[in-house]
Design goal:
9 helices, alpha+beta, 255 residues, 33% helix
């Protein structure tokens, strides 16, 4: 079974075992984006992941770039695109959800749409890296470390790894089958890993029952009335043994 992250490298680069100059020459042949989407769609995990990508790869992360397909009106739009114009390196960074908002299976093992899309980017000379949504939500920095390691391997520049010395290596995730994606949708699997770990549900407070002593005291005091000995005002409300007349302001302790 396929493991995530999925790393796909164009054949022109995978078979290349030569100098950096030759690698850059091949990268310069990569097909660049042909435009930008005005308002690119984003998944639930992508806003947070984008901040992590910008932190580690400033100036090289793009969203909404369009790759036009011959014979199709609808272009491909990567979730995120890493583009280094200096050397021509283009990476399609995808976050794979197991199902849609309508609870339909998505990005499952052997999904034909994903295979066609992947091949299109490879033919354009792009590197493709696909993470599971769970990985992007739970370990965004480790996902960035994976991207950095691919960049270091392709360019021979290991300095890009310096920022990840304290970042753990990403744990692999198994790609789901179509049937498993359906079951995950029924169980609400996505909601489970989106829920913050430090959030606990608040239980309603129970009303404290009045003790027998309190109830007896209320019954006892409710049976007494007090009239002011000075002006006759009454009945007057009182607390404990203290009373105060609102009419003449007489006040006293009453036993």
């Amino acid at each position: 079974m396929e493991r995530l992250p999925t790393l796909l490298i164009p054949a022109s680069l995978a078979s290349l075992k030569s100098s950096l100059d030759e690698t850059i020459a091949r990268l310069k042949q990569t097909t660049p984006p042909m435009g930008h989407h005005i308002k690119p769609p984003k998944g639930r995990s992508e806003s947070q992941f984008e901040r992590d990508l910008w932190q580690y790869f400033p100036g090289k992360i793009h969203t909404g770039v369009q790759m036009l397909r011959s014979g199709y009106d609808q272009p491909y739009v990567p979730d995120f695109a890493y583009i280094d114009p200096a050397i021509g390196l283009h990476i399609d960074i995808e976050i794979d959800e197991p199902y849609t908002r309508e609870l339909q299976p998505l990005h499952y093992f052997g999904c034909p749409k994903d295979a066609i899309r992947n091949q299109a980017f490879l033919d354009w000379g792009w590197v493709v890296i696909r993470f599971s949504e769970r990985q992007a939500v739970k370990a965004p920095a480790s996902c960035c470390k994976t991207i950095a390691s691919v960049i270091a391997e392709l360019t021979g520049d290991s300095s890009v790894m310096n920022a990840f010395r304290q970042v753990p290596t990403l744990k692999p995730d198994r790609r789901w089958t179509e049937a498993e994606a359906q079951q995950m949708a029924i169980q609400g699997d996505r909601d489970a890993y989106f829920k913050p770990a430090n959030v606990t549900e608040l239980k309603p407070k129970r009303k404290r029952k009045k003790s027998q002593t309190q109830e007896a005291r209320l019954m006892l005091t409710s049976g007494f009335t007090f009239y002011c000995p000075e002006c006759g005002e009454g009945p007057i409300r009182w607390q404990g043994h203290y009373v105060c007349c609102p009419n003449c302001l007489y006040n006293a302790f009453v036993l």
